[in-house]
């Protein structure tokens, strides 16, 4: 296997996060948290498109009507980037005690997100339904990162990364936002770095950006499957993109590495991604 890592475009992000491939428009979306910006590139081009946000964006979720859910300081917003329009979807519940971080959709069109803590502290993970509102998923997640939903070994499963600990998995009922007993899915005990953004591939492997670890890790139901070294110390998120979903994209923070803050594309992994679940904006 020959793996090729290349830079896309000439731009440098201050704090890149939340990569999402939109197969409807063949766009790769991501945010720059410190620049208060949603960015995207059109497939096959490195030109950067930008829409400013009124506060720090930390998560993006595609919707079923071509827009985006964006996680901002005071709640979840729906963004129409082509018209530079943002509309409040829902404020965060008071019990969160702050703002949320990374986010994903499940197969029923709900959102999974959770509290943003820059260091170990009390935190929580949450489910948001356009019909039923907010529901607590786990009261013991210091900093929510890399949430994902997949069918693993025949069972619907929710995965949530805690930057202060591991990637956890839960039996999951999407229509009610109910979870069962959590277990460690991605064990970080012997790995360099901290859990950050993640993505699921077509074979239900979880690719994880390990912040301050200069690497990606792939976990499966049997444990650690693969490690891929990166030319950046602080990768923050990862996703598959392109028409065949066979390119893996990575963003990171700015720093002393030559490619720190660049958008990276990885080819030759012999894995393909899956289409991301979408939030049901029509409810």
Quick take:
By secondary structure, the protein is mostly beta strands.
Low-confidence stretches: none
Number of helix segments?
Answer: 0
Report strand %.
over 45%
* Rg measurement, Å: 17 Å
- Helix % is under 10%
Name of the CATH homologous superfamily: TolB, C-terminal domain
What is the CA–CA distance across the termini? 45 Å
Taken in chain order, the helices and strands follow as: EEEEEEEEEEEEEEEEEEEEEEEEE
Question: What's the shape?
Answer: globular
CATH fold title: Neuraminidase
Number of strands: 25
Question: Mean pLDDT, rounded to whole units?
Answer: 96
Largest sheet: 5 strands, antiparallel
**In terms of structural class, how would the helical and strand content be classed?**
mainly beta
Number of domains: 1
What top-tier CATH class fits best? Mainly Beta
Architecture per CATH nomenclature, i.e. the level-2 architecture? 6 Propeller
């Amino acid at each position: 296997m020959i793996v090729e890592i290349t830079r896309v475009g000439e731009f440098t992000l201050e704090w890149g996060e939340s990569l999402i491939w939109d197969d409807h428009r063949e766009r790769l979306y991501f945010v720059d948290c410190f620049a208060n910006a949603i960015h995207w590139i059109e497939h096959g081009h490195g030109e950067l498109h930008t829409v400013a946000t009124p506060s720090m964006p930390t998560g993006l979720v595609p919707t079923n009507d071509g827009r985006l859910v964006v996680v901002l300081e005071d709640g979840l917003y729906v963004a129409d980037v082509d018209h530079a329009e943002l509309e409040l979807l829902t404020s965060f519940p008071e019990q969160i005690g702050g703002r949320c971080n990374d986010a994903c959709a499940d197969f029923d069109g709900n959102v999974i997100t959770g509290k943003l803590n820059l260091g170990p502290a009390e935190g929580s993970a949450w489910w948001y339904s356009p019909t039923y509102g907010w529901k607590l998923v786990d009261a013991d997640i210091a900093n929510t990162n890399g949430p994902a939903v997949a069918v693993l070994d025949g069972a619907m499963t929710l995965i949530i990364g805690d930057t202060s600990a591991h990637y956890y998995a839960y039996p999951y009922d999407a229509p009610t936002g109910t979870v069962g007993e959590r277990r460690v899915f991605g064990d970080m005990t012997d790995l360099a770095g901290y859990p950050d953004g993640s993505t699921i591939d077509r074979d239900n492997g979880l690719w994880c950006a390990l912040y301050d670890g200069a690497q990606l890790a792939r976990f499966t139901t049997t444990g650690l499957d693969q490690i891929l070294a990166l030319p950046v110390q602080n990768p923050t998120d990862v996703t598959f993109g392109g028409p065949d979903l066979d390119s893996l994209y990575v963003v990171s923070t700015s720093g002393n590495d030559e490619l720190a803050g660049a958008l990276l594309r990885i080819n030759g992994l012999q894995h393909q991604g899956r289409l991301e679940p979408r939030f049901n904006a029509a409810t």
